[in-house]
Amino acid sequence: MSIRVLLVDDNNLFRLGLSALISAHDDFTVVGDMRGGKEAVQASLTLNPDVVLMDIMLAGVNGLESVSQLKRRQGNVKVVILTEFRTEDFVREALRVGADGYVLKDASIDELLMAMRCVAQGKKYLSPDVSGHVVQSFLHPQSKGTKSSRLEMLTTRERSILQLVAEGRTNRGAAEFLSVSPKTVEKHRANLMHKLGLRNAAELTLVALELGLIARPFAIARLMSQPSASDLSA
Questions:
Q1: Is the domain of 107 the same as that of 152?
Q2: Are 177 and 71 contained in the same domain?
Q3: How far is CA 84 from CA 51, 55, 81, 127, 173, in A?
Q4: Which structural domain range is residue 191 located in?
Q5: What are phi and psi of 5, to 5 degrees?
Q6: Global model pTM greater than 0.90
Q7: Looking at the domain assignment, is residue 133 inside a domain?
Q8: Alpha-carbon dihedral sign for residues 38, 41, 44, 50
């Protein structure tokens, strides 16, 4: 079954060329292309894509605002940011509003296709050129704690839950895996986030990556799984 893609970019030639490149692969179908974020949000409700591929700078509504609106209206739609901006602030904000992937416009078509396949499977993808900076940014580098000291702060159960949640499991899924109640998982998750000074699931995932609890393959960022805010209570 092909992955349905909606393209959003204010450069017409770029959008048309990218559509042709993506459509050349049998496991993708481009269901539409839009110039602005506002139109994209409306089109997504009608076209029901699996993945929305969107720039940050768009005509009308800012791309990150559009991501937030898409996630509120269609929580199951995956969003990949395709942009030239590689600064930590943009990547951090994209993660916070719910983007599932972040790819730079100088990436190869193979990397872009990989990113869309990953998010369609419920994982996260960060271009390797930005992932290292983002990890360090989320880890509060002013802290003098080491990897081992951060791990030592957590109980064995808390480490397990950190890894399971970072891999993309919901509270219920982690509870079933560990044979405990979802309430128990919620309690341990709240405790470990407090101990590590974390504010959201994106930071939790990146800490698990840095601590080695989830792997990052050679040459690309780890295909991170991060539950959405709505999934965490599932």
A1: no
A2: no
A3: 19, 8, 10, 11, 36
A4: 139-232
A5: -120, 135
A6: no
A7: no
A8: positive
Contact (Cβ atoms closer than 8 angstroms) between residue 90 and residue 63: no
Burial of 172 (0-12, 13-18, 19+ CB in 10 A): middle
Does residue 164 fall inside a structural domain?
Answer: yes
21-49 residue pLDDT tens: 999 999 999 999 999 888 899 999 999 99
Final residue of a domain: which of 61, 96, 127?
127
Structure tokens at 3: 């992955």
CA distance 121 to 203: 21
Two tokens at 112?
Answer: 């872009």
Range of lowest pLDDT (15-19, 55-59, 62-66, 210-214): 210-214
Is residue 65 included in any domain, yes or no? yes
Structure tokens of 127? 């271009």
Contact yes or no for 86/130 (Cβ under 8 A): yes
